[in-house]
Design a protein that fits this description.
The complex is a heterodimer.
Chain A lengths: L2 H30 L1 E2 L5 E8 L2 E8 L1 H10 L4 E2 L13 H10 L3 H9 L2 H32 L3 H16 L2 H11 L5 H10 L10 H28 L4 H9 L4 H29 L3 H5 L9 H10 L6 H34 L1
Antiparallel strand pairs in A: 1-4, 2-3
Chain B lengths: L1 H16 L13 E6 L3 H14 L5 E6 L3 H9 L8 E5 H8 L8 H6 L9 E4 L2 E10 L1 E6 H6 L9 H13 L7 E3 L5 H13 L17 H15 L10 H9 L5 E5 L3 H5 L6 H6 E4 L13 E9 L5 H13 L3 H6 L5 E2 L11 H8 L3 E2 L6 H11 L1 H4 L5 H19 L4
Parallel strand pairs in B: 1-2, 1-3, 7-8, 10-12
Antiparallel strand pairs in B: 3-10, 4-5, 5-10, 5-11, 6-8, 6-9
Helix pairs in contact in B: 2-13, 8-9, 8-16, 16-18
Classes of the chains: A mainly alpha, B alpha/beta.
Chain lengths: 343, 414
């Protein structure tokens, strides 16, 4: 394709991407460099049906004036990025100086909200992604080998978790693992411990969130691999068969290499998806045991009433950068394949 | 469909014929747009306002949503704003006042003063910012049959007695987890700390400044009480908010609970529970703690505010319509839906707990601009202590550190 034709071809997509992806990220970045003006506080008295109490209020006129002079707020540079709620450089330095063992150091770091959320987010990504890849391929191969009459039904059933809205799906599981729910009560009976609770233990909560994650994203990798399986050339398969390859050898040496570009694609999608894990934490009410980077953004925007935009912006950008780092091995591999083929 | 239309029309005519006709609705032909939480008492007030003054207004719309708190600042910022009034509570009033989105009501109150009892005015620095109409607070719910069976005399009045009673119930083998409290990580958990800390006589901030002052003996004592209570609560307590604790109570799985007063009526009614539970449920003041004299609770009010960014005519029409709803007739028709602060309210059994808590001198939830930030920090950092992962001092130090970080970002601290 000529460069000129390519340019006009890509222009609509490119402009949409700049408008809806690149510019908002730039805007979020700029906002994350500023913090709010100093609030002008007035000491006053508040009275109501329960009597009077001394209180403070924000002088909105004075604050509005400050805002007019500098609409973005006070410039704070990367201050928000390195404060205690984010990368916490000062706190980590202090923890390093004050701790006598690595375990002690780690305990202090894990006590910082950003790092405890990062730990869960990474654990979730690195456990759920390979499980979904392997199980998705296994189910796809299994369904592909079914007799024709059963295939339709099997595909439909395998896709079901994908049809359920994430919030609803996790709520259903949340009620099932309740002490009075089907799964929770069964586990209590099996272990003969009436106070055993999946929601009260950090390890069990993490397991529950990850099992849910696998259950919910499995259909995506299954259906992609199943589509890929339909393109495996019959000649190659027959040749392998004639050469005496077993079913297992054909899977490993013929089918998987053929599906490799798809595996890269699915891995990329899963890393992006899993790294922004959020809904299950809210619907499982798992905040006490597991927090993710996306959950921190949500909490900053919502919990304190007047939103903390700089914090939310900083966490968003750190999340984007980390996601790019995680995806880079797969991206590099895809790029190499691409340049090799084009020569 | 047809029948429903007839019914609505009849109801409307009926209202027009009665007291409603006399209502003073202020300027005619205005647009009245109300944002409010979603519970029966608020529906009653907004509904009565619409019945009284919906006819005189060009537009009357009400948005009842549980998300009112999270959308209201954005909805009131543009000029003209999306709503002319927000029906809100203590903490949410500061959230709007921080951005200057509600107007002082002094002149409107002066004009309509005949219909407003003066004790309902929420005055800050001499300006009336809201008109309250109902009260709410946490208080104790007890099962008198179970207490009796376990050999505990009377109803617990202090948290120490609550713990003693809980131990007796457990020792007697009646219930393993007799206590129910709203300890869900986040807002609810922080609110439990707030009330027990206030019960100890604690102060959240150094007076007159935004410096936190919770990492002290009273804070540690409050956390120790919370941990002792959690020992007797359902193992899932960190996921329990009002709906779950009400469920535990109605299914007879708890004997002592600290829940919101607004749950009194739904628990005592004949739905969702058994006769055995409802007839033995006693509502009493929130317990005192640590030898203190005031109930460990935070008092809340719900009230009317008017948006800044609307025309004066719309503001007056909205104010007049909502004030016209605060009548003894409206209260009589919805008596058990709330603890009304209005004339004509007959406190029933469902209101006993809140009434006693107010009488005991419990503190109102602080209306301080930066309280939302501290509340959020408490909600995020206290779970580690209740899980047993860190000491009370460490948890409180974490809360102060988290609060300082966000307060600096919001401009309250340097």
């Amino acid at each position: 394709m000529k460069h000129r034709t390519f340019f006009w071809f890509i222009l609509p997509t490119l402009s949409a991407m700049i408008l809806f992806i690149a510019l908002p990220i730039v805007s979020v970045f700029i906002q994350s460099l500023f913090v709010e003006h100093e609030q002008v506080l007035l000491v006053s008295e508040s009275c109501g049906p329960f009597g009077c109490t001394p209180t403070t209020t924000v002088d909105t006129e004075a604050t509005a004036k400050l805002q007019e002079e500098q609409p973005l707020g006070r410039f704070n540079g990367l201050g928000t990025y390195i404060n205690r709620s984010h990368l916490a450089f000062a706190e980590i330095g202090e923890a390093w100086a004050n701790s006598d063992s690595f375990g002690d150091f780690w305990a202090q770091v894990y006590n910082l909200p950003f790092y405890s959320a990062l730990t869960f987010t990474l654990a979730y990504t690195f456990i759920v992604t390979p499980l979904v890849l392997a199980l998705g391929l296994a189910i796809a191969v299994g369904v592909n080998n079914l007799p024709r009459a059963l295939k339709g039904v099997a595909i439909f059933i395998s896709l079901l978790p994908f049809l359920v809205t994430p919030l609803v799906g996790s709520l259903i599981l949340f009620w099932m693992v309740d002490g009075d729910g089907v799964i929770g009560a069964t586990i209590q009976r099996v272990f003969n411990d009436p106070s055993l609770s999946l929601k009260a233990s950090t390890a069990l909560t993490w397991t529950m969130l990850m099992v849910y994650g696998v259950w919910h994203t499995l259909p995506f990798s299954f259906i992609t691999f199943y589509a890929g399986l339909q393109t495996v050339p019959d000649d190659t398969m027959e040749a392998a068969q004639i050469d005496g390859a077993t079913k297992w050898q054909r899977l490993i040496h013929v089918i998987v290499p053929h599906l490799m570009p798809l595996v890269s694609f699915v891995t990329l999608m899963l890393i992006m998806d899993n790294f922004r894990v959020f809904e299950p934490i809210v619907s499982f009410k798992a905040e006490a045991h597991a927090q993710s980077l996306s959950w921190i953004i949500y909490n900053d925007l919502r919990e304190s009433g007047n939103p903390l935009y700089a914090s939310a912006g900083a966490t968003s950008l750190i999340t984007i950068i980390l996601a790019v780092i995680l995806m880079s091995p797969v991206l590099v591999r895809t790029w190499r394949d691409f340049t090799r083929k084009s020569h | 469909m047809f029948l429903r239309k007839i019914a609505t029309a009849t109801a409307f005519v009926g209202l027009m014929g009665s007291a409603a006709y006399a209502a003073d609705c202020g300027p005619e032909g205005q647009s009245i747009r109300i944002l409010a939480s979603d519970f029966p008492a608020i529906h009653a007030v907004a509904g009565a306002a619409e019945a009284n003054c919906g006819g005189a207004a060009a537009e009357f719309s009400t948005n009842h949503t549980t998300e009112a708190r999270s959308i209201m600042n954005a909805a009131l910022t543009p000029n003209p704003s999306e709503y002319t009034s927000v029906i809100l509570a203590n903490s949410t009033l500061t959230q709007l006042m921080n951005d200057g989105l509600v107007r002082p009501l002094n002149d409107l109150v002066e004009k309509y003063k005949d219909s407003i009892p003066p004790n309902l005015l929420i005055t800050i620095d001499g300006n009336v910012m809201a008109v309250a109409f109902m009260a709410n607070s946490q208080h104790l719910f007890s099962r008198k049959d179970i207490l009796e069976q376990a050999g505990f005399e009377g109803i617990p009045a202090t948290y120490e007695e609550v713990l003693e009673a809980a131990e007796k119930i457990r020792a007697a083998g009646i219930m393993e987890h007799p206590i129910a409290m709203n300890l869900q990580t986040g807002w609810n958990l922080a609110e439990v700390f707030n009330m027990i800390y206030l019960g100890h006589g604690g102060e959240f901030f150094v007076p007159g400044s935004a410096e936190p002052s919770i990492n002290n003996e009273k804070g540690v004592a409050a956390l120790e009480v919370m941990k002792a209570l959690a020992e007797y609560a359902h193992p899932d307590h960190l996921t329990h908010a009002s709906n779950e604790t009400q469920g535990l109570w109605e299914s007879g799985q708890a004997a002592l609970a600290v829940m919101w007063g607004s749950r009194g009526a739904p628990i005592l009614d004949d739905e969702g529970s058994t006769e055995e539970v409802t007839s033995n449920t006693v509502l009493s003041a929130a317990p005192t703690v640590g030898g203190g004299s005031i109930p460990s609770a935070t008092l809340w009010w719900d009230g009317i505010t008017i948006a800044s960014n609307v025309s004066d005519e719309e503001a007056e029409a909205t104010f007049a319509a909502l004030i016209s709803a605060l009548t003894p007739e409206m209260v009589a028709a919805n008596n058990d839906d709330a603890v009304w602060l209005l004339e004509g309210f007959q406190p029933g059994p469902a209101a006993a707990g809140v009434a006693e808590t107010v009488k005991g001198g419990a503190k109102p939830y602080p209306m301080i601009p930066q309280i939302g930030l501290l509340h959020a920090a408490l909600g995020a950092e206290l779970a580690d202590f209740l899980k047993g992962d860190e000491s009370a001092e460490q948890a409180l130090a974490d809360v102060e550190a988290a609060y300082r970080t966000s307060a600096k970002e919001a401009g309250f601290l340097k």
